[in-house]
UniProtKB/TrEMBL annotation:
The keyword Nucleotide-binding does not apply. Residues 400-472 form the Secretion system C-terminal sorting domain. Keywords: Signal. Residues 1-18 form the signal peptide. It holds the Pfam family Por_Secre_tail. The keyword Cell division does not apply. NCBIfam families: Por_Secre_tail. It comes from Mariniflexile soesokkakense. This is M64 family metallopeptidase.
């Protein structure tokens, strides 16, 4: 991981000594290398309080995965805790906040591992790993060191603080206490902040400083209903284009919803943010957990030959699969198939399954990008029987934009498989109108200005295997 590389590059000059702490997995959905690994660090828990830390971390996990879309995609995550003991309990309260009349809480200083401090940057509820950004540098080194020494393959880390006073903060390593204020738990701060650090969501509240505004999943300067990036959600689930403010620079920026978790804690994520979270999940994790047979695992195959997929399924399952044998549809939406001798040609046969997720959380038909995951088996069938079976897995991220369009449509795909994709644009009655090839990491522009206004089908093929289909709208 990039974080780990830069960390080791840095500490090679800093002589930071390794410290190994007790670790425990509190949510196990599968192999770590095939899941998103969330790591929770303890802060302000003495050695005798680490059992309580596990309870508090478990309560946080239950709260997070009780909410959409984490509830539906819970099987894509593992959660691990690192039990980092502190000399004393709690967090610092310097009594230096400027947004309250101090002391709003008893002034105290405690010796904790990551220096958790309320009143940071002058805000009483801002619980950060130091009083400000200047002091935070050394603590960030400690956080990175603990992660590198104890769980270097983490995807996201957060810090849970042993304090019943409400507070938290964001950044690379979100931090939250276990306090409650006006019925809202600090857990909500952590989930909101994970929306930033892990899923690239923006805040939807105002006031924000000008530097925090920027084009993102849930923030834009475009307010045209037909052009805004969440156009496919417009006028559903409360989605529209709402100004951050009616004057000043914020008047030029728009959010998708008036009551999203990225604006108000304890609210659910809006449809646009849920879609962004799920897209990131699919970027990080393939829904294909494993498959069989793998290459040459069957030394003397006999018929029928059994093929199996083990999928990481959302709850309820929204995954769809298309099985093709020698470019012809074999079956759909099953995890197991049997191939008979009569199904095969003499010579080389190709069996492919393509998996995608057309969840109702995603506006897949007109979404700019979508994810397809494939397994391909090559079956060498001779007159004397099966000579061998080889297999490989590939992931595709395919983009077709803008959509709708009246002139130019762009096609692009990224894959760990360097093969070309064939794109076939057809009318709804099946007539092929345009056929083109696109190469990995290249963008192809196609002029469709001569086509009649209406809807078309775009099919994407890897070799002779259909891996995805998408609707194209010509204005």
């Amino acid at each position: 991981m990039k974080q780990l590389f830069y960390f080791f590059l840095f500490v090679s000059f800093q002589c930071v000594s390794a410290q190994v702490f007790e670790k425990e997995t509190i949510k196990n959905s599968g192999d770590n290398d095939k899941r998103i690994n969330l790591v929770i660090l303890s802060e302000g828990y003495q050695t005798g309080e680490l059992a309580q830390f596990k309870t508090d971390a478990t309560n946080f996990v239950n709260a997070m995965f009780g909410q959409s879309p984490f509830k539906e995609y819970t099987s894509y995550f593992n959660v691990h805790i690192i039990k980092v003991p502190s000399t004393q309990s709690g967090a610092d309260h310097p009594g230096t906040a400027t947004d309250v009349t101090e002391p709003a809480s008893p002034v105290r200083f405690v010796d904790t591992y990551f220096n958790a401090t309320f009143d940071s940057f002058g805000f009483h509820r801002l619980l950060f790993y130091e009083i400000d950004g200047n002091y935070a540098n050394n603590t960030e080194i400690k956080i990175n060191s603990v992660l590198a020494d104890n769980f270097p393959t983490y995807d996201q880390a957060l810090i849970l603080v042993n304090s019943t006073i409400y507070g938290g903060s964001g950044g690379e390593f979100p931090m939250a206490s276990k306090g409650v204020s006006n019925g809202v738990s600090s857990t909500e701060i952590a989930i909101h902040e994970l929306g930033h650090s892990m899923f690239n969501l923006k805040d939807e509240y105002f006031p924000l400083e000008e530097g925090y505004f920027g084009e993102a999943i849930n923030m834009t300067q475009q307010n045209s209903p037909s052009l805004v990036k969440w156009k496919n959600w417009m006028n559903t689930n409360g989605i529209s284009t709402y100004q951050y403010n009616n004057s000043g620079f914020a008047a030029n920026w728009y959010r998708p919803h008036q009551g999203c978790k990225m604006r108000y804690l304890s609210y659910p994520f809006c449809a646009v943010c849920k879609e962004g979270v799920i897209e990131k999940i699919h970027t990080l994790v393939s829904p294909i957990d494993s498959y069989s047979p793998i290459s040459n695992s069957i030394t003397s195959p006999t018929f029928p030959i059994h093929f199996h997929l083990n999928l990481i399924k959302p709850i309820p399952n929204t995954l769809k699969s298309i099985w093709t044998l020698n470019a012809s549809n074999f079956t759909n939406d099953v995890d197991d198939i049997n191939v008979l001798e009569s199904d095969l040609n003499t010579g080389i046969n190709t069996l492919t399954v393509a998996v995608n997720d057309p969840s109702s959380f995603l506006k897949v038909d007109n979404h700019d990008s979508f994810h397809v995951y494939t397994v391909t088996w090559t079956i060498d069938n001779s007159a004397l029987g099966i000579k061998g079976i080889t297999s490989y897995i590939a992931n595709y991220n395919i983009a077709m934009y803008p959509n709708p369009t009246n002139t130019i449509v762009n096609f692009k795909f990224e894959s760990d498989n360097n093969a070309q994709l064939k794109v076939v644009i057809s009318s709804l009655d099946g007539k092929k109108i345009k056929i083109l090839s696109i190469e990995n990491h290249h963008t192809n522009q196609v002029d469709i200005s001569n086509l009649s206004t209406g809807m078309y089908l775009t099919h994407f093929y890897s070799g002779n295997t259909l891996i995805a289909s998408k609707k194209l709208v010509k204005n």
